[in-house]
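Slide 14.
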Amino acid sequence: MRILFFTHYFPPEGNAPASRTYENCKRWVKYGHDVEVITCVPNVPNGVVYDGYKNRLVQKEIIDGIKTKRVWTFIAANKGTFKRIINYLSYMLSATLVGMFIKKPDIIIATSPQLFCGWTGIVVGKIRRCPVILEIRDIWPDGITVHGVLTNKYSNAFLEFMARKMYNAATHIVTVGKGYKHILVKDKGIINENISVFTNGADLDVYFPVQKNKDLKLKYAIDDQFICSYIGTIGMSHGLDIVIRAAKLLKKEQRQDIVFLFIGDGAMREDLKSQAVREKLDNIVFVGQQKKELIPQFYSISDTCLVHLKKADLYKSTLPSKIFEIFAMEKPLILGVEGNAAEIVKKAEGGICIQPENEIQLVEAIKKLANNHNLVDLYGRSGRNYVIEHFDRKKLAKDYLDLIEKVHRSYHMNTKQLV
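Slide 15: predicted structure.
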């Protein structure tokens, strides 16, 4: 089949949506399918175009057999509202135009958020007369209103209307967690049979236990301290000021054997870094954005890893993809996310669950692990075994492909019946 995929993010960007799309698409190519991705020039999270790229009308490349077209967009950093909306709209216009003139696909997949990327797939699918799978990684507009980013009730009502229209216009919907499926059925009125769940997972060929990179520890002046790492986007939704509060408590207790490591960038990084400097917290190290291929090395020096989101009902449906990478690296997890994610960590027996935004529980969890290395090993092994059994990217990509083929067949059978 010819599979056309619309996504705002794609490698060399290393965030969760870019990784998920790439991991699936490269495997579909290996199964013999013609996969084409229409995306932006890489620039997240700072709105700076990566070396080797230019923000042209269209530029082409092939990544692991995936035909990739990068369209012009208004470049904006991953923060603020107005410029990001212009960025989203410009992608929709550019990607829709390009999607109209390429060879007709057999099926389209569009991943949302953001909302306009989803609509790109819907519009092109309607005009080109082919089925559209809408992939939902967050619920709009709920995902932005929970932060208070958009407070105008008329704007919220309009986005809610557009989101519902988009959900109903899709041939089929794929969510990354069962919590999102529950919301779509219960709150958005989508038919249960029109939704499938395909979670994120781990590429076990990339993420596996390795020896600690001693040179990396030396580079950041970390001796024999117990390292709690946060690896990923440092955004508004993550509530990472909990680390500032926890670091203050540990310093007050004179626990100099524990250090926090931030690997990544995002809208809140500079603010958190300023807080750490202001509070003289030398037990926090900010590494900054790193190339994706180096991330396993940072996992290697981590004794435990933190995954955290703000306390909100919406996030009970969220299943952060970092959970699976951490498990695959055989590292114990400290999870500050309620709901579906907590259920998985408990089933896996791969770490400790805490209340979101509760720095006291975070400190207690870190100390429990730092004081018991046997527990660290036990959680690590248990988590890896669980991800091997349930969240191997290879199997997930094959199951997803089976659904794509089923949707394609069903669409054309229905079309023939209508004719």
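Speaker note: The longest strand covers residues 34-40.
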